[in-house]
Amino acid sequence: MNEEFSISLKKISGWGLLKTVKKELALDECIKDSQDPSLDEKQFILKNWCQNIGINSQEELKKWLRQEKINEEEWQKLIIRKWKWMKWCEKEFKDKINSYYLQRKNQIDQVIYSLLRVKDKDLADELYLRIKSKEGEFKEIASTYSEGPEKRVGGEIGPVPLSNAHPLLSKLLQISKSGQLWPPKKLDDWWIIVRLERIISTELNEDLRKKLFFEMGDEYLLTQISNNSLEKSLLKN
Question: pLDDT tens, 145-189?
């Protein structure tokens, strides 16, 4: 395929890819003056990428390249481009990472909770009282009466990110104390009984820092793509 081939803005928009293309253009603009890694850095970056996706030999890499229909030079450019973007984000947002982490913490913390759901309110009230008065274990009652998929695991869910839960359920868990049992709450077509088992606080380690830097970078790009001048980089109709 010709490296210099062009695609019209109309086609890109028609494919639903205009937003993605504009984001990539904005990203290129950010890193256009970024320094290339040294030879040693480049080798480390490429080796680390291979290890992260389970490529352990040159033959496995060649197989992956064939599957993706790109050559080794194109692959290296893609990986180095992502590395440059990470470096740009680290430099741009290093003074904001702690406050952003605190802002996101409630969504990225992990939670273990017990859930039971039924369609009948009277049954929900009865089961709640049985659990509260310790006439039966939550796990036993959920296994017998719950009408959702959690029935198979005795109602216990997690650890999962708080953000994975329904917004109403997530808010309920955020204000709960460990072991707190909530009376039946209406959630869509269900009556649910919830007990928080525990919250697993997520530490701001290196992996999470990278994830949050990329999130902040993505938010920045979204603010940039509203700039119509980016479209000048695309072929006009």
Answer: 999 999 999 999 999 998 888 999 999 998 999 999 999 999 999
- Taking all residues of the chain, what is their mean pLDDT, rounded to a whole number? 91
- Judge whether 187 and 166 are in contact, CB under 8 Å: yes
| Cα dihedral 199, 204, 209, 212 in deg (nearest 10) | 40
Report the first-to-last Cα separation within the chain, whole angstroms: 21
> Using an 8 Å Cβ cutoff, are 1 and 59 in contact?
no
Could you give the count of Cα atoms lying within 13 Å of 22 in the half-sphere of its Cβ?
20
Domains and CATH numbers, the chain: 9-101+206-233 (no CATH), 110-200 (3.10.50.40)
Whole-number Å distance between alpha carbons of 196 and 85:
39
Q: Is 183 helix (H, G, I), strand (E, B) or coil?
A: strand
In this prediction, residue 29 has a pLDDT band, given cuts at 50, 70 and 90, of: very high
Distance (Å) of CA 87 to CA 79, 92, 93: 13, 9, 10
Helix residue ranges, H only, the chain: 9-14, 18-31, 39-52, 58-68, 72-93, 97-108, 121-132, 138-145, 167-174, 206-224
